[in-house]
């Protein structure tokens, strides 16, 4: 199982680091990918992360794609042709598409990936798309799409992705390994 995490300038730190950590603990091979040719990406709170690859260097063998939120990170993801094309391709292949905070409304919805799907996003970010039926739930999984409201839901979000990818037993094992209480 292999995951792709797209990072753009202005990403939200917890929304990136918590899922990254959970994926790695669950045994998911995870690549952090910069959306441009600079591998150093600065977060919304000025933390710099060095990506494993750039978007132009990635292969086609990913099972999961994940978009952290944060501003202006979500808008920067939306404006990346490579990100949008990869999302559409992976969605058409029924791969796991996951996004948190502003990214469901800013990136997934405008691409039509949430059409007919239940989803959630950060309160107030609904206006970033034409989708008017976002749910207020913290984490929503509908088919191959997983969305989450905010950084506060990052653990449950990441564990839901692990469950979809590797099963409930692996998700529970990973939850226990980090002593995450539900």
UniProtKB/TrEMBL annotation:
CDD domains: GATase1_DJ-1. SUPFAM superfamilies: Class I glutamine amidotransferase-like (SSF52317). Residues 1-163 form the DJ-1/PfpI domain. Pfam families: DJ-1_PfpI. GO terms for cellular component: cytoplasm. NCBIfam families: not_thiJ (TIGR01383). This is DJ-1/PfpI family protein. It comes from Candidatus Ornithospirochaeta avicola.
């Amino acid at each position: 199982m292999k995951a792709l995490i797209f990072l753009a300038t202005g990403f939200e730190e917890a929304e990136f680091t918590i899922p990254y950590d959970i994926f790695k603990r669950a045994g998911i091979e995870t690549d952090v990918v910069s959306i441009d040719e600079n591998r150093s990406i600065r977060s919304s709170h000025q933390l710099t992360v060095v990506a494993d690859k750039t978007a132009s260097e990635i292969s086609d063998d990913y099972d999961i794609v994940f978009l952290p939120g944060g501003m202006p990170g979500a808008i920067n993801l939306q404006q990346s042709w490579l990100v949008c094309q990869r999302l559409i391709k992976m969605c058409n292949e029924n791969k796991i598409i996951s996004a948190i905070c502003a990214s469901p409304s800013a990136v997934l919805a405008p691409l039509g990936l949430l059409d007919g799907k239940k989803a959630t996003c950060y309160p107030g970010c609904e206006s970033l798309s034409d989708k008017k039926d976002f749910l207020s739930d913290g984490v929503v999984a509908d088919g191959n799409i997983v969305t989450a409201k905010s950084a506060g839901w990052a653990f449950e979000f990441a564990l839901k992705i692990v469950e979809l990818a590797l099963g409930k037993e692996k998700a529970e094992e990973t939850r226990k390994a980090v002593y995450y209480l539900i």
